[in-house]
Amino acid sequence: MSREEHIARTFVELADTLVAGFDLIEFLQQMTVRCTELGDITDAAVLLTHPGSPLYSPAPCDPGIGLQRVLEVALQEGPGVEAYHSARQVVPDVSADDTAARWPRLVTQARQAGYAPPSAVPMRLREDSIGSLLLLHTGDRSLAADDLRLAQALADAATIGLLHARTVGRQETVNTQLHTALQSRITIEQAKGILAARRNIPLNQAFGAMRRYARHHRTLLSQVALDVIDAGLLPDVPPARPESAAEG
Fold first, then answer.
1. Strands of 43-48's sheet, edge to edge?
2. What's the pLDDT at 95?
3. What is the rounded distance in angstroms from the CA atom of residue 223 to the CA atom of residue 188?
4. DSSP assignments along 124-186, one per residue
5. What confidence score (pLDDT) does residue 34 get?
6. HEC states along 177-223?
7. What is d(CA 131, CA 33) in angstroms, rounded to the nearest whole number?
8. % helix, strand, coil for the chain, step of 5
9. How far apart are CA 96 and CA 112, in angstroms?
10. Residue 64: what pLDDT?
11. Where is 122: in which H helix or E strand?
12. CA distance 99 to 128
């Protein structure tokens, strides 16, 4: 598949929020994965909110402890928070001395995890703001303009899809998923740990096994997590890709 075809397919995925069995967590996870596949972005995370809630990160990823710490701080300070409140892209100059002074904890955690200071784009349509998309990359330069434009386009498509779902009779469903997304993430993270321990595999492989099982059986990722915790479900682990394939 060419890059252009991959981009086109991604926009179709992000527009299809009216499909039966729509899973908000899987939807947001898909967007962050596509960011890393299509751009020079190492990791991406959605910072989301709903009425009466502060920003939180609802979509589970495969983070090491370094990325987890970055996300914890990014909910309190930095480009993700500023992009949400200002409805503008926030792209720090990674070589500027004042960047570390502006967000001292975030820049410190990012550098310890091997990232440059992160950027962020808003998830907003006119007066409706639902959060931001945090973009993490490595190297000593700011995020490239082309990657930033693509990330903003993906964030816009996801925001339009979610808000459109609200306006065509599914507001209760989407709002309920927004409200429960954080609890679902906690459940998924717990199940990931249980499966990793029982299968003696890394956390990212455990997460991949649960996603694969959910897709094969056409069920929600959060339901698979509950089955792992409550019923002892042990999904098969996908075979690891050869190093040469992973590098390509």
1. 43-48, 128-136, 119-125
2. 76
3. 9
4. EETTEEEEEEEEE--SSSPPPHHHHHHHHHHHHHHHHHHHHHIIIIIHHHHHHHHHHHHHHHH
5. 87
6. HHHHHHHHHHHHHHHHHHHHHHHCCCHHHHHHHHHHHHHHCCCCHHH
7. 18
8. 60, 10, 30
9. 18
10. 61
11. strand 119-125
12. 29
Rg, the chain, Cα only:
18
Spatial distance between the Cα atoms of 168 and 165, rounded to a whole number of angstroms: 6
Question: Where do we find the tokens 């999904």?
Answer: 235
Low-confidence ranges of the chain (pLDDT < 50): 18, 168-170, 241-248
Task: Name the one residue in this structure whose structure tokens are 């992160």.
Answer: 118
What pLDDT does 248 receive?
A: 38
- How does pLDDT run across 173-221, given as a tens digit for each residue? 555 555 556 567 778 888 989 999 999 998 888 888 888 888 788 787 8
Q: 247 burial class (0-12, 13-18, 19+ CB within 10 angstroms)?
A: exposed
Sequence letter at residue 137 = H
Which residue segments constitute the domains of the chain, with CATH numbers given? 3-175 (3.30.450.40), 192-247 (no CATH)
CB 103 within 8 A of CB 94: no
| CA–CA separation, 246 and 35 (whole Å) | 17
Q: Tell me the two tokens of residue 158.
A: 């996801």
